[in-house]
Amino acid sequence: MGVPEEPKQLEEQRLGPVVRRRDQVQPGTTDQRLLDTEGDSEWVHTDPWRVMRIQSEFVEGFGALAELPSAISVFGSARTKPDSPEYEAGVRLGRALVEAGFAVITGGGPGAMEAANKGAREAKGVSVGLGIELPFEQGLNPHVDIGVNFRYFFVRKTMFVKYAQGFVVLPGGLGTLDELFEALTLVQTRKVTRFPIVLFGTEYWKGLVDWLRDSVVAGGKASEHDLLLFHVTDDVEEAVALVSKEVGR
Predict the structure, then answer these.
(1) Separation of alpha carbons 249 and 121, rounded Å
(2) Distance between CA 185 and CA 205 in Å, rounded?
(3) Nearest-CA neighbor of 143 among 126, 159, 157, 160?
(4) pLDDT (tens digit, 9 = 90+) per residue, 185-206?
């Protein structure tokens, strides 16, 4: 056999969808780098590899939730105590949503999320928990029937909206507010349509509603119409009726 010719320096290199020219040309090929057993493992911490992980989370989430019946996402504090009125309201809400024909989706954690999952399970409905990898989280609560754990908040948030027909928001902290304003923004900008948002607990949400009206709207940072994007109630039956009406149930 003859000696292989020395490879010529390429002026242009195509690596999948990427084009490299002149001094940006890389030695070797993609297959060669894939099959090469030498080298360190730093590549698993690079952004291209993270993209694959993100993609896999979307695929797993879509696959797990694609056949859900109509569902409502319920948010609320992980710190809600099991012996509190808020917890009991969450249980009644989860039960009432199932009786109205909905599956219940929560963040899968303790507190208000556990309460809604518990009510859904007791009513023999579909109880879903979408967990998140956090250093202080305890894992999915025992009332979750279908659970998906996520590394990335933005993937998880997509699932909350994509597979729900509306939100009911129990008293909660920063995570709950994050989900609430994400939903309000999507509805305001018409990225989603016919998406009811119900705030449960008039006393708890009063300060926020007042601030939106007296500071945000009054200051010209939002319109008066934006205050109609959500409802506030203390009544479980009214909350379920509101989401049912807006999604045409």
Answers:
(1) 21
(2) 18
(3) 126
(4) 999 999 998 899 999 999 999 9
Helix (H, G, I), strand (E, B) or coil at 94: helix
Please state the φ and ψ torsions of residue 8, each to the nearest 5 degrees: -80, 150
Q: 105 - beta bridge partners?
A: 73, 128
Spatial separation of the C-alpha atoms in residues 238 and 22, rounded to whole Å: 67
Would you say 104 and 120 are in contact if contact means Cβ atoms under 8 Å apart?
A: yes
Pairing of strands 167-169, 71-75: parallel
pLDDT the model gives residue 133: 85
What residue type is 204 in one-letter code? Answer: Y
CB distance 127 to 104 below 8 Å: yes
**Distance (Å, rounded) from C-alpha 249 to C-alpha 245?**
6
**How far apart are the C-alpha atoms of 198 and 246, rounded to whole Å?**
11
**Amino acid identity, position 75:** F
In whole angstroms, give the CA distance from residue 108 to residue 150.
Answer: 11
pLDDT of residue 42: 74
Amino acid letter for position 127: S
Mean pLDDT computed over every residue of the chain? 89
Angle at 23 between CA 22 and CA 25, to 5 degrees: 75
| Cβ atoms within 10 Å, residue 236 | 21
Question: Which secondary-structure segment (H or E) carries 187?
Answer: helix 174-188
For 20, phi and psi rounded to 5 degrees?
A: -120, 140
